[in-house]
Amino acid sequence: MQNDEISALVAQGRQAIGERRFDEARQIYRDMLAKDPSQCRAWLALSAIAQQEGKLRETVETARSAAETWRNSDSNAFLAEVCMRLLMLGEYQTVRDLILGADWNDPVVLRASPGLVQYLGLVEAHDDALRLADHAIERSAGMAPALLYARATALRHLGRMDEAADAFEQVIAANPLHAEAHWALAHHARSEPAGARVPRLRKSAAHVSADHEDAIYFQYALFKELDDADRTEEAWAALERGAALKRKRLNYAASHDDESYQQLRTLCSREFVTAPGASQARAHHTPVFIVGLPRSGTTVIERMLGNHPQVQSAGELNDFLAQLSWEADRFMGEPLRQPGLEAVQGIDFEALGRGYLERTKWRAGDARLLVDKLPNNLLHAGFIHRALPDARIICVRRNPMDSCFSTFKHLFSAQAYPFSYDLSEMAAQYRRFETLVEHWSRVLPDRWLLADYEDVMREPEGWARHIAEFCGIEYDPAMIQIESNTAPAATASSSQVREGLHVRNIGSWQRYARWVASMGM
């Protein structure tokens, strides 16, 4: 096809999609593929159409066709677009394979390298992310702040602490208004002396309008720097401003969560979650799900287990929800709401379990256990047990005030944990969490373990032995030496977990008691 003809068809297709004439748009792109099967962008458009129609499987299948078309082409064009769509759909292994299979010397790939480095990090391929970043810089792709920031983030996740701090400073030197770099540096490494970065932060923040997203990052960065300097009153003011700005950007109604949690408990009776159907056959690996509220200590348990020679930690995976969505052939949100919960009742739970194990097999390698540490899998515990009856679920619970304050003071990405930017909504979420934990503790059998963060910190060896026994492995003394765990960590605690086990964070909310006591937890 000639470029003019392609451009005309793409324009027609986009107009039809914009006017929600999906059947017409679909036919336009099908005709394009009939004339030229190498048109990767046509498959991407077909995937977008299916998504708007709520057809999950068609969305995934057409995205996979886009990936296969890209593989068979002679061009690296559309690599970033294909990877972005696959990421959204949870096709992580394909994303990694596509990027690693691309020609990294191609100018198209080099120009897209900031995003591609980020994508590799999102699929937990942090070593590869750093390799690509270094290669792109060496090949004179430019010292663009976006590429430098992606490189700094990879170093942070890999635990190369000093190098990461220097790299974040390099980003700020290239662009003093790079708000995310200021924020990441504040949470990654303390300034010397404490609070030394505050003047620089305030100077940069003054150039950003109050309603810009960057203002949120600057306020959270200021909070951390002022908090480290024990300037609590100023710190709290910055945190309040940042949280209020973030909350305005979120479409969240706590009443919807109240209803969804109630519906989830009603559906997931003991009879439902223990119903026969899932295969008990020996799997390639046994999953261990670590769940709870964010910032509650789940990463500590993950690092303890990850130090065991029979265990592979995979990070925070969306694979279970992605496979659940596939089996129901619908896009599932969190928490599941009607009609999603109704759809779940009719799925093949044995297929769900097989699909999850197949999705995660590449991550497990030769390990006996694979740790999936996505806190929100707490919402799926009943479905997990029914689909994977051999899987272990470890729920971490933290003191209510510490848990709520630790979550409130953290800035999460995009729409994650929308309840965490208002103290009353955070307290309400903790109460929902407690009720759900009580429910799972009643209805789930011996594959469920509740671990209180404070107990684990005060008696790490005893709890490490208990966790090992629960998971069916022998205790290894390395489990309590989490500072020796060199595996990548891409969670909110990625810098903190490089320290050893300690009790310093117990009761940390008390420094801000006069502001947070209103939660009444």
Automatic annotation (TrEMBL):
Sequence ranges of the TPR repeats: 145-178
Q: Please list the coiled coil stretches.
A: none
Q: Which UniProt keywords apply?
A: TPR repeat, Transferase
Key word Transferase present in the record?
Answer: yes
What parts of the sequence cross the membrane? none
A Pfam match is: Sulfotransfer_3
Has UniProt tagged this entry with the keyword Transferase? yes
Q: Which InterPro entries match?
A: P-loop_NTPase, TPR-like_helical_dom_sf, TPR_rpt, TPST-like
GO molecular function, one example?
protein-tyrosine sulfotransferase activity
Name by which UniProt lists this protein: Sulfotransferase family protein
Q: Record the organism.
A: Pseudoxanthomonas indica
